[in-house]
Amino acid sequence: MRERLRRALEGWAAAPGPAAFLTACRELRSVLLPADCVVCGQPDESLCPGCALAVRHATLRPFNASAGAAMLPHAENRNGTVSGSGFPGTAPEEEMPLSVIAAGRYGGGLSRVLLACKNHGHTDLTGILAEAMARALHEAKRSAQVPGQLAVVPVPGSFHSRTRRGYDPLQLILAKVGHRGLLPVDTGIARVLGYRPGAGAAGLVAAGRRAQKELGAGARRRNVHGTMTAGPPGTLLGMRVLVADDVLTTGATLAEAVRALRAAGAEVVSAAVIAAVRAPAPGAEFTGGIRSVPACGTGGGSTPNEQRPRSEGE
Ligand SMILES: [Zn+2]
User: Fold this and answer.
1) Is the dihedral of CA 138, 39, 251, 124 positive or negative?
2) Which alpha helices (H) appear in the chain, and where do they start and end?
3) Which residues of 84-99 are buried (b: 16+ CB within 10 A; e: fewer)?
4) What phi and psi values does residue 35 have, to the nearest 5 degrees?
Protein backbone atom coordinates (compact mmCIF):
# COMPACT_ATOMS: atom_id res chain seq x y z
CA MET A 1 0.00 0.00 0.00
CA ARG A 2 2.76 2.43 1.04
CA GLU A 3 4.81 1.34 -1.97
CA ARG A 4 1.90 2.28 -4.23
CA LEU A 5 1.68 5.68 -2.54
CA ARG A 6 5.39 6.22 -3.10
CA ARG A 7 5.02 5.31 -6.78
CA ALA A 8 1.97 7.57 -7.13
CA LEU A 9 3.81 10.53 -5.57
CA GLU A 10 6.80 9.93 -7.82
CA GLY A 11 4.47 9.75 -10.80
CA TRP A 12 2.88 13.05 -9.84
CA ALA A 13 6.31 14.68 -9.37
CA ALA A 14 7.46 13.38 -12.76
CA ALA A 15 4.32 14.42 -14.63
CA PRO A 16 2.24 16.90 -12.62
CA GLY A 17 -1.39 16.94 -13.64
CA PRO A 18 -4.89 16.41 -12.29
CA ALA A 19 -4.95 12.65 -13.00
CA ALA A 20 -1.62 12.01 -11.25
CA PHE A 21 -2.70 14.25 -8.36
CA LEU A 22 -5.97 12.31 -7.93
CA THR A 23 -4.09 8.99 -8.03
CA ALA A 24 -1.72 10.23 -5.34
CA CYS A 25 -4.68 11.45 -3.23
CA ARG A 26 -6.40 8.08 -3.57
CA GLU A 27 -3.28 6.21 -2.49
CA LEU A 28 -2.72 8.61 0.42
CA ARG A 29 -6.30 8.05 1.54
CA SER A 30 -5.90 4.28 1.41
CA VAL A 31 -2.81 4.59 3.66
CA LEU A 32 -4.51 6.93 6.13
CA LEU A 33 -7.93 5.23 6.05
CA PRO A 34 -7.41 1.55 5.25
CA ALA A 35 -10.56 0.04 3.74
CA ASP A 36 -11.85 -3.21 2.31
CA CYS A 37 -14.23 -3.50 -0.61
CA VAL A 38 -17.77 -3.64 0.85
CA VAL A 39 -18.69 -6.27 -1.75
CA CYS A 40 -15.72 -8.66 -2.04
CA GLY A 41 -13.53 -7.67 0.92
CA GLN A 42 -10.47 -6.91 -1.20
CA PRO A 43 -8.23 -4.44 0.67
CA ASP A 44 -7.39 -0.82 -0.20
CA GLU A 45 -10.70 0.57 -1.46
CA SER A 46 -14.25 0.53 -0.11
CA LEU A 47 -15.39 -0.48 -3.60
CA CYS A 48 -12.80 -2.17 -5.79
CA PRO A 49 -12.79 -1.44 -9.54
CA GLY A 50 -14.18 -4.89 -10.39
CA CYS A 51 -17.12 -4.59 -7.98
CA ALA A 52 -17.75 -0.98 -9.03
CA LEU A 53 -18.01 -2.19 -12.62
CA ALA A 54 -20.44 -4.94 -11.60
CA VAL A 55 -22.63 -2.51 -9.63
CA ARG A 56 -22.62 -0.08 -12.55
CA HIS A 57 -23.54 -2.89 -14.92
CA ALA A 58 -26.42 -3.94 -12.63
CA THR A 59 -27.93 -0.45 -12.84
CA LEU A 60 -27.57 0.26 -16.56
CA ARG A 61 -31.05 -0.88 -17.53
CA PRO A 62 -33.75 0.81 -15.44
CA PHE A 63 -37.06 -1.07 -15.41
CA ASN A 64 -40.60 -0.55 -14.21
CA ALA A 65 -40.75 -2.31 -10.83
CA SER A 66 -44.39 -1.51 -10.00
CA ALA A 67 -45.61 -5.06 -10.58
CA GLY A 68 -43.48 -6.42 -7.74
CA ALA A 69 -44.76 -4.00 -5.08
CA ALA A 70 -48.25 -4.82 -3.84
CA MET A 71 -48.83 -1.70 -1.76
CA LEU A 72 -48.16 1.02 -4.30
CA PRO A 73 -50.82 3.72 -4.75
CA HIS A 74 -52.68 4.07 -8.02
CA ALA A 75 -51.47 6.23 -10.84
CA GLU A 76 -53.01 9.65 -11.26
CA ASN A 77 -54.81 10.83 -14.37
CA ARG A 78 -53.77 14.12 -15.92
CA ASN A 79 -56.84 15.88 -14.53
CA GLY A 80 -55.70 15.12 -11.01
CA THR A 81 -57.97 12.18 -10.20
CA VAL A 82 -56.67 8.77 -9.29
CA SER A 83 -56.92 6.30 -12.17
CA GLY A 84 -59.94 4.03 -12.30
CA SER A 85 -62.01 6.01 -9.85
CA GLY A 86 -64.88 8.12 -11.11
CA PHE A 87 -64.42 7.20 -14.75
CA PRO A 88 -67.36 5.47 -16.45
CA GLY A 89 -66.40 2.04 -17.73
CA THR A 90 -63.20 1.90 -15.73
CA ALA A 91 -63.31 -1.06 -13.40
CA PRO A 92 -61.18 -1.04 -10.24
CA GLU A 93 -59.08 -3.93 -11.58
CA GLU A 94 -58.03 -1.66 -14.45
CA GLU A 95 -56.49 0.79 -12.03
CA MET A 96 -52.84 1.17 -12.77
CA PRO A 97 -50.29 1.29 -9.96
CA LEU A 98 -48.01 4.30 -9.81
CA SER A 99 -45.07 3.78 -12.15
CA VAL A 100 -41.88 3.14 -10.16
CA ILE A 101 -38.67 2.95 -12.15
CA ALA A 102 -35.79 1.07 -10.49
CA ALA A 103 -32.19 1.34 -11.69
CA GLY A 104 -31.47 -2.24 -10.67
CA ARG A 105 -32.59 -5.25 -8.69
CA TYR A 106 -31.87 -5.31 -4.99
CA GLY A 107 -29.23 -7.97 -4.51
CA GLY A 108 -25.55 -8.77 -5.03
CA GLY A 109 -23.10 -5.90 -4.99
CA LEU A 110 -25.79 -3.23 -5.36
CA SER A 111 -27.48 -4.19 -2.08
CA ARG A 112 -24.15 -4.32 -0.27
CA VAL A 113 -23.20 -0.87 -1.52
CA LEU A 114 -26.61 0.50 -0.52
CA LEU A 115 -26.37 -1.03 2.96
CA ALA A 116 -22.81 0.20 3.42
CA CYS A 117 -23.91 3.71 2.47
CA LYS A 118 -27.06 3.61 4.59
CA ASN A 119 -26.00 1.77 7.71
CA HIS A 120 -22.23 1.69 7.88
CA GLY A 121 -21.25 5.29 7.31
CA HIS A 122 -19.94 4.75 3.79
CA THR A 123 -20.91 8.16 2.48
CA ASP A 124 -17.98 7.77 0.08
CA LEU A 125 -20.17 5.37 -1.92
CA THR A 126 -22.80 8.01 -2.74
CA GLY A 127 -21.14 8.64 -6.12
CA ILE A 128 -21.89 5.28 -7.69
CA LEU A 129 -25.40 5.29 -6.16
CA ALA A 130 -25.98 8.79 -7.56
CA GLU A 131 -25.20 7.48 -11.05
CA ALA A 132 -27.77 4.70 -10.59
CA MET A 133 -30.35 7.13 -9.16
CA ALA A 134 -29.78 9.44 -12.13
CA ARG A 135 -30.50 6.62 -14.59
CA ALA A 136 -33.76 5.79 -12.79
CA LEU A 137 -34.77 9.48 -12.71
CA HIS A 138 -34.08 9.90 -16.43
CA GLU A 139 -36.18 6.87 -17.32
CA ALA A 140 -38.97 7.88 -14.90
CA LYS A 141 -39.08 11.34 -16.47
CA ARG A 142 -39.01 9.92 -20.00
CA SER A 143 -41.73 7.35 -19.39
CA ALA A 144 -43.98 9.80 -17.51
CA GLN A 145 -44.25 11.87 -20.72
CA VAL A 146 -45.43 15.00 -19.00
CA PRO A 147 -44.59 18.46 -20.31
CA GLY A 148 -42.99 21.18 -18.24
CA GLN A 149 -41.22 21.16 -14.93
CA LEU A 150 -41.06 18.15 -12.63
CA ALA A 151 -40.13 18.37 -8.97
CA VAL A 152 -37.98 15.48 -7.71
CA VAL A 153 -39.20 14.97 -4.14
CA PRO A 154 -37.12 12.66 -1.92
CA VAL A 155 -38.80 10.43 0.64
CA PRO A 156 -37.40 11.84 3.89
CA GLY A 157 -35.41 9.86 6.39
CA SER A 158 -37.23 9.67 9.71
CA PHE A 159 -35.94 11.67 12.66
CA HIS A 160 -35.00 8.38 14.32
CA SER A 161 -32.91 7.09 11.41
CA ARG A 162 -31.26 10.49 10.86
CA THR A 163 -30.33 10.62 14.54
CA ARG A 164 -28.99 7.07 14.48
CA ARG A 165 -26.97 7.53 11.28
CA GLY A 166 -26.10 11.19 11.63
CA TYR A 167 -26.96 11.71 7.96
CA ASP A 168 -29.70 11.05 5.42
CA PRO A 169 -28.22 8.79 2.71
CA LEU A 170 -30.88 9.57 0.09
CA GLN A 171 -30.38 13.34 0.53
CA LEU A 172 -26.62 12.88 0.04
CA ILE A 173 -27.17 10.75 -3.06
CA LEU A 174 -29.63 13.21 -4.61
CA ALA A 175 -27.38 16.14 -3.72
CA LYS A 176 -24.61 14.40 -5.65
CA VAL A 177 -26.94 13.82 -8.60
CA GLY A 178 -27.60 17.57 -8.61
CA HIS A 179 -23.99 18.66 -8.11
CA ARG A 180 -22.82 16.47 -10.97
CA GLY A 181 -25.43 17.88 -13.30
CA LEU A 182 -27.08 14.46 -13.73
CA LEU A 183 -30.67 15.57 -13.10
CA PRO A 184 -32.99 15.23 -16.12
CA VAL A 185 -33.77 18.50 -17.90
CA ASP A 186 -36.68 20.49 -16.48
CA THR A 187 -36.38 18.85 -13.07
CA GLY A 188 -35.25 20.20 -9.73
CA ILE A 189 -35.01 18.70 -6.26
CA ALA A 190 -37.77 19.90 -3.92
CA ARG A 191 -37.57 18.80 -0.29
CA VAL A 192 -41.23 19.38 0.45
CA LEU A 193 -41.95 16.13 2.24
CA GLY A 194 -41.32 15.53 5.93
CA TYR A 195 -42.47 13.45 8.84
CA ARG A 196 -45.11 14.87 11.13
CA PRO A 197 -43.57 15.85 14.46
CA GLY A 198 -43.39 12.73 16.60
CA ALA A 199 -44.56 10.49 13.74
CA GLY A 200 -41.30 8.58 13.50
CA ALA A 201 -41.38 7.76 17.20
CA ALA A 202 -45.09 6.85 17.03
CA GLY A 203 -44.44 4.51 14.12
CA LEU A 204 -41.67 2.79 16.00
CA VAL A 205 -43.82 2.30 19.08
CA ALA A 206 -46.63 0.93 16.91
CA ALA A 207 -44.22 -1.51 15.35
CA GLY A 208 -42.91 -2.62 18.70
CA ARG A 209 -39.50 -1.52 17.43
CA ARG A 210 -39.64 -4.16 14.74
CA ALA A 211 -38.33 -3.14 11.36
CA GLN A 212 -40.92 -2.38 8.69
CA LYS A 213 -39.71 -5.34 6.59
CA GLU A 214 -40.67 -7.75 9.35
CA LEU A 215 -44.28 -6.58 9.43
CA GLY A 216 -47.21 -8.00 7.47
CA ALA A 217 -48.75 -5.97 4.66
CA GLY A 218 -51.55 -4.48 6.76
CA ALA A 219 -49.21 -3.64 9.64
CA ARG A 220 -46.78 -2.01 7.26
CA ARG A 221 -49.48 0.27 5.93
CA ARG A 222 -50.76 1.14 9.41
CA ASN A 223 -47.19 1.66 10.56
CA VAL A 224 -46.49 4.43 8.05
CA HIS A 225 -49.98 5.79 7.32
CA GLY A 226 -50.36 9.43 8.27
CA THR A 227 -46.71 9.81 9.29
CA MET A 228 -45.71 12.20 6.47
CA THR A 229 -46.83 15.66 5.48
CA ALA A 230 -46.16 17.99 2.57
CA GLY A 231 -48.14 20.85 4.05
CA PRO A 232 -51.84 21.79 4.26
CA PRO A 233 -54.22 21.06 1.34
CA GLY A 234 -53.47 23.25 -1.66
CA THR A 235 -49.89 24.05 -0.63
CA LEU A 236 -48.43 22.22 -3.65
CA LEU A 237 -51.22 22.89 -6.13
CA GLY A 238 -49.82 22.89 -9.67
CA MET A 239 -46.65 21.01 -8.72
CA ARG A 240 -45.88 17.88 -10.73
CA VAL A 241 -43.82 15.43 -8.73
CA LEU A 242 -41.45 12.56 -9.33
CA VAL A 243 -40.89 10.86 -5.96
CA ALA A 244 -37.39 9.51 -5.26
CA ASP A 245 -36.47 6.79 -2.78
CA ASP A 246 -33.57 4.40 -2.36
CA VAL A 247 -35.20 0.95 -2.26
CA LEU A 248 -38.65 -0.29 -3.26
CA THR A 249 -39.90 -3.21 -1.15
CA THR A 250 -43.70 -3.39 -0.83
CA GLY A 251 -44.34 0.24 -1.75
CA ALA A 252 -45.84 1.12 1.67
CA THR A 253 -43.41 3.97 2.25
CA LEU A 254 -43.88 5.34 -1.27
CA ALA A 255 -47.65 5.05 -0.84
CA GLU A 256 -47.50 7.23 2.26
CA ALA A 257 -45.26 9.76 0.51
CA VAL A 258 -47.69 9.92 -2.42
CA ARG A 259 -50.68 10.25 -0.08
CA ALA A 260 -49.08 13.23 1.69
CA LEU A 261 -48.08 14.89 -1.60
CA ARG A 262 -51.52 14.45 -3.15
CA ALA A 263 -53.15 15.70 0.06
CA ALA A 264 -51.13 18.89 -0.35
CA GLY A 265 -52.34 19.26 -3.95
CA ALA A 266 -49.35 17.91 -5.88
CA GLU A 267 -49.74 15.71 -8.94
CA VAL A 268 -47.51 12.66 -8.52
CA VAL A 269 -46.62 11.32 -11.98
CA SER A 270 -43.96 8.71 -11.26
CA ALA A 271 -41.35 7.47 -8.81
CA ALA A 272 -37.73 6.42 -9.11
CA VAL A 273 -35.65 4.18 -6.85
CA ILE A 274 -32.10 2.88 -6.96
CA ALA A 275 -33.10 -0.75 -6.38
CA ALA A 276 -36.27 -2.85 -6.25
CA VAL A 277 -36.45 -5.92 -4.04
CA ARG A 278 -38.84 -7.96 -6.18
CA ALA A 279 -38.03 -9.12 -9.69
CA PRO A 280 -39.86 -7.19 -12.43
CA ALA A 281 -42.77 -8.82 -14.22
CA PRO A 282 -41.92 -10.50 -17.54
CA GLY A 283 -41.80 -7.89 -20.30
CA ALA A 284 -41.29 -5.03 -17.83
CA GLU A 285 -37.66 -4.64 -18.83
CA PHE A 286 -36.69 -1.27 -20.21
CA THR A 287 -34.41 -1.55 -23.20
CA GLY A 288 -33.17 1.99 -23.74
CA GLY A 289 -31.13 2.54 -20.57
CA ILE A 290 -29.18 5.73 -20.13
CA ARG A 291 -25.58 4.73 -20.53
CA SER A 292 -23.93 8.11 -20.75
CA VAL A 293 -23.82 8.91 -17.03
CA PRO A 294 -20.13 9.38 -16.22
CA ALA A 295 -18.19 7.18 -13.84
CA CYS A 296 -17.36 8.31 -10.33
CA GLY A 297 -14.63 7.77 -7.78
CA THR A 298 -15.03 5.53 -4.76
CA GLY A 299 -12.87 4.48 -1.86
CA GLY A 300 -12.23 5.14 1.84
CA GLY A 301 -13.95 3.81 4.93
CA SER A 302 -14.27 0.18 5.99
CA THR A 303 -16.56 -2.56 7.34
CA PRO A 304 -18.00 -5.13 4.97
CA ASN A 305 -21.59 -5.83 5.81
CA GLU A 306 -24.38 -8.32 5.59
CA GLN A 307 -26.90 -8.44 2.77
CA ARG A 308 -30.32 -7.44 4.01
CA PRO A 309 -33.20 -5.47 2.54
CA ARG A 310 -33.68 -2.06 4.06
CA SER A 311 -36.28 -1.39 6.71
CA GLU A 312 -38.96 0.49 4.87
CA GLY A 313 -40.20 3.53 6.69
CA GLU A 314 -36.84 4.30 8.20
ZN1 LIG B 1 -14.67 -5.77 -4.63
Assistant:
1) negative
2) 2-14, 18-32, 49-58, 108-119, 126-144, 159-165, 169-179, 199-206, 217-224, 252-263
3) beeeeeeeeeeeebbb
4) -140, 155
pLDDT at 84 over 50: no
Cα 178 to ligand 1 centre (Å): 27
The residue ranking higher by pLDDT, 74 or 132, is 132
Q: What is the pTM of this model?
A: 0.75
Q: Would you call 246 exposed, middle or buried from its count of C-beta atoms within 10 A (0-12, 13-18, 19+)?
A: buried
More confident residue, 79 or 287: 79
Instruction: For the chain, give the mean pLDDT.
Output: 80
Q: Give 125 Cα–ligand 1 centroid separation in angstroms.
A: 13
Distance 49 CA to ligand 1 centre (A): 7
Exposure of 161 in the CB half-sphere (CA atoms within 13 A): 24
Average pLDDT estimate for 229-246: 96
* Displacement of CA 113 from its chain's centroid (Å): 12
d(CA 36, CA 120): 13
Ligand 1 centroid distance, CA of 99 (Å): 33
Write the pLDDT tens digit of every residue in 239-268. Answer: 999 999 999 999 999 999 999 999 999 999
Q: What is the C-alpha to C-alpha distance for residues 101 and 65, in angstroms, rounded to an integer? A: 6
Which distant-in-sequence residues (6+ apart) come within 8 Å of 135 by Cβ? Answer: 59, 60, 62, 103, 289, 290, 293
Mean predicted confidence (pLDDT) in 259-282:
88
286 CA to centre of ligand 1 in angstroms: 27
- Domain ranges in the chain? 35-276
